[in-house]
Design goal:
alpha/beta, 2 domains, three-stranded antiparallel β-sheet, elongated, Rossmann fold, 407 residues, 17 helices, formyl-coa transferase, domain 3
């Protein structure tokens, strides 16, 4: 393997999304990622369907889209960690790994002697990343945490969706498990920082990541809007809290995004509208004033935008270097020439389906490009391979473990 992280082995003891997401990132970058799953059941998301991947005859396989989204380039090994023999296998793999990722409940692995303090004794260089809903400390540490809860508790749902005074108003979650995804991305940064520290010191370390912490950190300008003003921001639908006009507009034949990012763009936008007076009016001249007078300005702009079709608007706006864009469904996104040219849809061979379509990696590295080596694995597909190649077990030993249902 030639990936940027091909010198690393990652023991992925996580399930669902946040942990598997960072595991897949490391795998895409070349790391040997060994996914530990429960015999017979596997990752929870193996049962989260429909929809399922279809075979060449159009029939459903056992592989749901959810699981396929976060487990490419990994090797699946089934081990029962509740059994002493299974725990010994995990210890053997951890001794030969650089990183361990887990998202068990706080203290959940201590009873198996698979916690950080136990494993650092056999591998002082191990970087051990624990992902939980609320972290390892604090009054909520023992609570289970799921993405939906975290979107609510972090304040994200208080700023997402239409205004309470309009139809459809009220709390709204984001359409994907964004708290899980963001935590996976934060985990990737934290783990690589710990690995760089290990290069200098030879010592691994423990990483305590909480979904709530990560989602709150990612509230970015909205969190700071509250901290500097003392006033919690509310829902604005598709409008921006700090920039106007920056929202969805209805055109003659549909909708489009118009994102006027500065005063110069606003003046050019007013010229396109044949309303240069709006650029000179003191209440709208600067972004500060436009935010303060948002409702009055938008009420003027909406009928002016509605006179042209979306495609016509986008051509005019692009000519003036004013950010704009269509609102796609996913079929349109994947067929857009830009998406196609960036290879954001890839296909791989798959044992059950023949071929499996996958979302491509966004990493575009000039010297160590991402390699699509293995499709998301079948449950336990690589158990014998890993136990033999990594731990050096022979077929008799592996057969004995299987007969005892340890693997």
């Amino acid at each position: 393997m030639t990936g940027a992280l091909s010198h690393l082995r990652v023991l992925d003891m996580s399930r669902v999304l946040a942990g598997p997401w960072v595991g897949q990132m490391f795998a895409d970058l070349g790391a040997d990622v060994i996914k530990i799953e429960r015999p017979g059941r596997g990752d929870d998301t193996r049962s989260w369907g429909p929809p399922y991947l279809k075979d060449a005859d159009g029939r459903d396989t056992s592989e749901p889209g959810y699981f396929l989204s976060a487990n490419r380039n990994k090797r699946s090994v089934t081990i029962d960690i509740t059994r002493p023999e299974g725990q010994e296998l995990i210890r053997g793999l951890a001794a030969l790994s650089d990183v361990l990722i887990e998202n068990y409940k706080v203290g959940g692995l201590i009873r198996y002697d698979l916690d950080y303090e136990a494993l650092r004794q056999i591998n002082p260089g191990l970087v051990y990343c624990s992902i939980t809903g609320f972290g390892q400390s604090g009054p909520s540490a023992q609570r289970p945490g799921y993405d939906f809860m975290i979107q609510a508790m972090s304040g994200l749902m208080s700023i997402t969706g239409e205004k309470d005074t309009l139809p459809g108003g009220g709390p709204q979650k984001v359409g994907v498990a964004v708290a899980d995804i963001l935590t996976g991305l934060y985990a990737g940064n934290a783990i690589q920082a710990a690995l760089l520290h290990r290069e200098l010191t030879g010592r691994g370390q423990y990483i305590d990541l909480a979904l709530l912490d990560c989602q709150l950190a990612a509230m970015a300008n909205q969190a700071m809007n509250y901290l500097v003003s003392g006033k919690p921001p509310g829902r604005l639908g598709n409008a921006h809290p700090n920039i106007v006009p920056y929202q969805v507009f209805a055109s003659r034949d549909g909708f489009l995004i118009i994102a006027v990012g500065n005063d110069d763009q606003y003046r050019r936008f007013c010229r396109l509208l044949d309303r240069e007076d709006l650029a000179d009016e003191p209440d709208f001249q600067t972004n500060r004033e436009r935010v303060r007078n948002r409702e009055r300005l938008v009420a003027i702009l909406e009928p002016l935008v509605r006179v042209r079709a979306s495609r016509e608007w986008m051509q005019l706006l692009e000519e003036q270097n004013i950010p704009c864009g269509p609102i796609y469904t996913l079929d349109q996104t994947f067929s857009d020439p830009q998406t196609v040219s960036r290879q954001m849809r890839v296909e791989m061979d798959h044992a059950l389906a023949g071929r499996v379509p996958l979302v491509g990696s966004p990493f575009k590295l000039s010297e160590t490009p991402v390699e699509y080596r293995m499709p998301p694995p079948l449950l336990g597909e690589h158990t014998d391979e890993v136990l033999q190649d990594v731990l050096g077990l022979d077929q008799d030993a592996i057969g004995a473990l299987r007969s005892e249902r340890i693997i």
